[in-house]
Amino acid sequence: MKRRITALALLALVAGDVMGQATPVKRPRAREAGVIVGVFAPGEHNAITDVTGVRVGHTTIIEGERVRTGVTAIHPHGGNVFLDRVPAAVHIANAYGKLVGSTQVQELGELETPVLLTCTLCVWKAADAMAEWMLRQPGMQSVRSINPVVGETNDGGLNDIRSRPVRAEHVVSALESAAGGTVAEGSVGAGTGTAAFGWKGGIGTSSRRLPASWGGYTVGVLVQTNYGGILTINGAPVGRELGRHDFLKGADGSIMIVLATDAPLDARNLERLARRTVVGLARTGSTMSNGSGDFVIAFSTAESVRRRESRSPRTIQDLPNDRMSGLFQAAAEATEEAIYNSLFKAMAAGAVEALPIEQTLQILRKYNALAGAAR
After folding, report:
1. How do the domains of the chain map onto residue ranges?
2. Which residues pair with residue 206 across a beta bridge?
3. pLDDT tens, residue by residue, 88-111
4. Fewer CB atoms < 10 Å away: N or C end of the chain?
């Protein structure tokens, strides 16, 4: 039996089929449980979609007993990105992985398609499907070159990855269902079959809104977690206390990090900003192992730095270097919290357990790492 299901339907399915219960088990986001990261406040939805114009879509693929994977699409804005390009940059912390299209982004400093995330052996199928979809869009009749950007992590532990189950209709569904507002997290889309720190991983997102004194800009991050290390939450040694980490039970893997901001940045400062997401990654207990692909793609949605080839050239007004520190802090905070959200929201699948919420909160209380009620 083949099914393509929505994020909300997946919550009920996983809770019933995997956990043996008739009703969904509600798992909180990290902040709802009292895990307050950093000093800056999140945006309205505490998601990458708090950056105006950014939209996210998921296709979750569950087929029979063996296929657990999906596609996640991130649109920088509501228009055609090829015709209205955004500055972008890539940072690679450890390159054991595939980020299709990264070399042209690095060379030209711009993004000309949405960003897709999926499983390792399906990146080329996803890239091909998105290229076909883009070429069908209005205004693309004379286009002869396109650079689809697709990242991945390896979900082969829960997914029959060799069957390469992602099809063109899955990619189109993710692209065309993308929306702003609340973003589904955990075992959904490209996070359906992933694992992190030995527990179920998945999709997570978070945002930060800088105070007016730092420009009032928004930074949003979305992650696909499938990596290992020794889980640390707000400084508390959760993995050590629970007796589960890479050096007891292997959890090697990768992470894809997508960062969006409305700050007017060129590719150079976007690359600097992308690097700071690794600060947040490190705080969660990752040491970026040999087999981990740790990739970051960052872009700016600011109108003032868009690259519209059909219009006359203009001077791009990049944010001064001495105004970057607040954005650096926001990137680290949002990345750290997005990773926690991916773990808190993910539910058990197959032999991979979900992070035990109550035990985790007990450890956080023990180390005074729990701030209290969400705000």
Report:
1. 28-358
2. 221
3. 999 999 999 999 999 999 999 999
4. N
